[in-house]
Amino acid sequence: MNKRQFLKLMFGTSLGLSSYSALGKQLSLVNAAAKSTSLEGYKALVCIFLYGGNDSYNMLIPTDINDYQTYAGVRQNLAIERESLLSLNTVSNLPYNVGVPNYMSPLAELFTQGRLAFINNVGPLVEPTTKANIQADSANLPPQLFSHNDQQKLWETSGANLNDLAGWAGRMADLITDTSANTISTNISLAGNNIMQTGNIIQPYSMTAEGAPMFGALNPEEDWNSDRISIFDQLIALDNHALGNSYKSIMNRARTNALMVNQALDTTPALETEFGTDSLSQELAMTANLIAARDTLGMNRQVFFIGFGGWDTHDRQMQDHPVLLSRLSAAMASFNSAMNELGLSDSVTTFTASDFGRTLTSNGDGTDHGWGGHQLVMGGAVNGGRLFGQLPALELNSNDD
User: Fold this and answer.
1) CB of 10 within 8 A of CB of 348?
2) Left (φ > 0), alpha (ψ -120 to 50) or beta: where does 158 sit?
3) Cys-Cys with 313: which of 42, 218, 317, 373 at CB 3.0–4.6 Å?
4) CA 18 vs CA 4, 127, 385: distances in Å
5) Burial letters for 111-129: b for 16+ Cβ neighbours within 10 Å, e otherwise?
6) Residue 100 near residue 58 (C-beta atoms within 8 A)
7) Which residues contact 106 (CB under 8 A, 6 or more apart)?
8) Are 70 and 60 in contact (CB under 8 A)?
9) pLDDT at 215
10) Residue 18: what pLDDT?
11) What is the reported pLDDT for 15?
């Protein structure tokens, strides 16, 4: 799925982008389209951000004997056994012989079904860059390479300026959201505040896997709070100055939205799809429930953000990384099943992002910060069963190293 298809799927219009950094400039076309035509049907994006930097070279692995020997020679004690790999070449016409570890079997199955694709060796980039450019000190590199916070910000803003305060999903929401409507934000986060969903106008609506926060002592669903709520409402009604009115408006909106969201979830039929009990699975289950409640909430365009931490595997990589990939695979497969159950597989696209890739060589017990890495894209509208982009050479000191 290319960038034109990506935006067309999301907005129901067609755009051409020359680079990801051009996204903000071209969104004015989306704004014009949104104002002149209705956004029919339902579309959603679900971002799973793998915080810490996923070692994706132990996620997508060469199976050809010669290529595997090169991989194993570089990875040393971190190499996944060739016999345990699940080949992806059951799909015809792949440009490489590759596989995934057997604990990623749910995603291997989605790949062969054409529901999942790999985006190879991607990361923040200012301009086309070669190793020779870097060695000659003539390359315009992204700022603060290998820094967790900075590279996360570049992923979330789709630019190369660390001073940007608005993310790409936030800027899109600014342009397509009717701010006069009494609805929650187009952007829903199950990972707290994030730059990706923050616009110049729109802010993400934060939730948890349990639902919308109800301010405990002001929760109207608890009978013993009725007197407390009455007193609180009387107190905030006393303020007539600007700061007090602003606080009152924010509090009332937060309470109203939380009640509206939770009531919508309560009245929406439960999904039959089963999810795991880990945090990622539960957050994707809540995302699926929110999508199921889309009509009640009056939503037809949404972006969801989920954070999944633990990927900074400087040590214990061979113990921790398989667990992370196993949980990611199972949770994404369950979410795919939920979208099938809702009949929305073609309308919801899920993708991963991560700070950066990691070094090919071992530090003794794990890996250190790198640059490019592989990402996953899943959904019925995805041109799945394919590898997009070139796999880097795995030899040390190659032009890709």
Assistant:
1) no
2) left
3) 317
4) 10, 11, 25
5) bbeebbbbbbbbbbbbeee
6) no
7) 329, 330, 332, 333
8) no
9) 64
10) 33
11) 31
pLDDT value at position 246? Answer: 77
Instruction: State the Rg of the chain over Cα.
Output: 23
User: What is the CATH number that goes with domain 41-213+276-388?
Assistant: 3.40.720
Whether 280 and 331 have beta carbons less than 8 Å apart is answered as: yes
Integer Cα distance of 50 and 46 in angstroms: 13
**3-state secondary structure at position 294:** helix
| H/E segment holding residue 189 | strand 187-189
pLDDT the model gives residue 177: 81
Instruction: Write phi, then psi, for 116 (nearest 5 degrees).
Output: -145, 140
**What are the tens digits of pLDDT across the range 30-55?**
444 444 445 789 999 999 999 999 99
Give the amino acid at 251.
M
Closest CA to 264 of 348, 180, 183, 177: 183
User: What is the block-wise mean pLDDT of the chain (401 residues), using blocks of 10 residues?
Assistant: 46 35 43 50 98 99 98 98 97 92 99 98 94 94 96 94 94 84 87 97 95 70 64 71 74 82 96 98 99 96 98 99 99 99 98 98 98 98 96 92 83
Q: How many CB atoms lie within 10 A of CB 198?
A: 24
- The pair of structure tokens assigned to 296 is 């009640």
What string of H, E and C letters represents the secondary structure of 205-264? EECECCECCCCHHHCCCCHHHHHHHHHHHHHHHCCCCHHHHHHHHHHHHHHHHHHHHHHH
Which pLDDT belongs to residue 10?
44
| DSSP H or E segment with residue 168 | helix 168-176
Q: Is 330 helix (H, G, I), strand (E, B) or coil?
A: helix
Which stretches of 12-104 are DSSP H helices?
23-36, 65-75
Query: SS3 of 271, please?
Result: coil
Report d(CA 13, CA 32) in Å as an integer.
Answer: 10
Cα distance between residue 180 and residue 152, in whole Å? 32
CA-to-CA distance for 141 and 123, rounded, in angstroms? 11
Q: Which two structure tokens, joined as six digits, stand for 287? A: 């995302």
